[in-house]
Design a protein that fits this description.
Largest sheet: 6 strands, mixed
Number of domains: 2
Strand content: 5-15%
Bound molecules: guanosine-5'-diphosphate, magnesium ion
Distance between the termini: 78 Å
């Protein structure tokens, strides 16, 4: 009896181990939301048959993942576009209610916190430029409490001043990351085009701006990393690359929140959010599966339906596909909400045919899903139906978000012509 039990246990463990490996394999290194160290400790518990141990690590991750604080410092001279960048990072229009006021001169050394409206643990700090303070870099950093930030963004709308470069050196010496952002690139392009209409080449102007800054950095022995940005048009120039780089450099456990908080201005940004949320679904499934001794079969229960509705709504909010977001998008684009809704699928996921129950509808999705090779979860023995459906909903909302992105993009193209 004892032997058969342990044989059973080890089979169970092997299955869990292999499905955990599947999961690990499926997400790119720079997108993982749990650290290599944590992955190793889960693996080692599974290989020792310590299922309870693996379960408690995963529970801990899920409990804490949205409580991790993230603090970003944005600094630069007054007028350089700092406050605008703060809004850009939070995905807020410059006139929205919680937006940082743009075009206002600073007079004090005080830093101003801007909490992300949906993710209160993500705070972007608007710092006065070092030049306005007359402090030496070290004193400046002390004054603005440098230890509290995960990284610094140094902003300029022209060339970077000696002050900025000195600041970067001290930040580096303090073992923190910094990124240079050159704003108002749209403005430079427009200027050049007006002044030199016959010889103007867009790419050339961009390269010139980049090279000038790189040269200044190299002369000062500073890592040549610069991002050209227009706060008026985030998907143009380097803002998408900036988002990628910031996320890649963050410790894995800080990525999830920051990924969700960043604006969804490109398809890649939308996919990144999906990848992050997929990992959460996976971890939840794994957590549930680890302790379930029998595969869950049969019908979908009422509280599962409630859980599914809640996660669908959460995805819709994250991707701007919920009712309130659709209303405001409709207003922006000047199209009726019905027209937006007609182009997407997620609002109708729970609609049933005549005589069909919601349970039957959901089982229908599962039949379709199981007929195609689907996600690493297919490998998991203990995996439950509810999680398959969550994946399906997440995918549906992701493609809806892309449809809406295309719509607003083509609309903006039309209005800017
Ligand atoms: P701060 O003083 O550094 O906080 O700069 P603000 O964000 O208040 O911006 C100063 C001015 O520059 C405002 O009028 C902004 O609208 C404008 N501005 C900021 N970023 C950009 C940009 O990327 N392109 C253009 N054309 N104008 C910008
Ligand atoms: Mg400002």
């Amino acid at each position: 009896m004892g032997t058969s039990f342990s044989a059973e246990l080890s089979k169970e463990c092997q299955d869990l181990e292999s499905s955990f490996k599947e999961y690990i394999k499926n997400f790119r290194e720079e997108r993982k939301i749990i650290s290599q160290e944590t992955i190793l400790s889960i693996k080692s518990r599974l290989s020792r048959g310590d299922i309870q141990g693996a379960h408690s690590i995963i529970s801990g991750i899920l409990e804490n993942i949205d409580k991790v604080p993230l603090n970003v410092a944005v600094t630069g001279e007054s007028g350089s576009g700092k406050s605008s960048l703060v809004n850009s990072l939070r995905g807020l229009g410059h006139e929205e209610e919680d937006a940082a006021p743009v075009g206002v001169e600073e007079t004090t050394i005080e830093r101003t916190p801007y909490k992300h409206p949906n993710f209160p643990n993500v705070t972007i700090w608007d710092l006065p430029g070092i030049g306005t303070t007359n402090f030496q870099p070290k004193d400046y950093l002390e004054k603005v409490k440098f230890g509290e930030y995960d990284f610094f963004i140094i902003v300029s709308a022209t060339r970077f001043k000696k002050n900025d470069l000195d600041l970067a050196k001290v930040i580096k010496a303090m073992k923190k990351n910094f990124y240079f952002v050159r704003t108002k690139v749209d403005f430079d392009l427009q200027n050049e085009q007006e002044f030199k209409p016959t010889t103007y080449v867009r790419e050339k102007v961009i390269e010139e701006i980049r090279n000038k800054s790189l040269k200044e950095f190299q002369e000062n022995n500073i890592e040549p990393q610069i991002f050209l940005v227009s706060n008026k048009d985030l998907s143009a120039f380097d803002f998408p690359i900036l988002m990628d780089t910031l996320l890649k450099d963050l410790p894995a456990q800080k990525r999830h929140m920051f990924t969700l908080s960043l604006p969804k201005i490109t398809e890649a940004a939308i996919d990144r959010k999906r990848d992050s949320l997929q990992q959460i679904v996976w971890l939840e499934a794994f957590k549930a599966g680890v302790l379930a001794t029998f595969p869950v079969v049969g019908i979908i229960k009422d509280n599962d339906v409630e859980k599914l509705k809640a996660s669908l709504h959460q995805y819709q909010v994250h991707f701007g596909v919920d009712d309130a977001s659709l209303q405001s998008l409709g207003k922006d684009l000047r199209v009726p909400v019905e027209e937006l809704k007609a182009a997407i699928k997620s609002p109708y996921l729970f609609d049933t045919e005549q005589d069909q129950t919601i349970g039957e509808k959901l089982l229908e999705y599962l039949e379709i899903l199981s007929s195609v090779a689907f996600t690493p979860l297919a490998a998991g023995l203990y995996f439950m139906k509810v999680f398959y459906l969550q994946f399906h909903f997440l995918d549906t909302v992701t493609s809806d978000a892309k449809v809406l992105l295309k719509k607003s993009y083509s609309r903006n193209q039309l209005t800017s012509q």
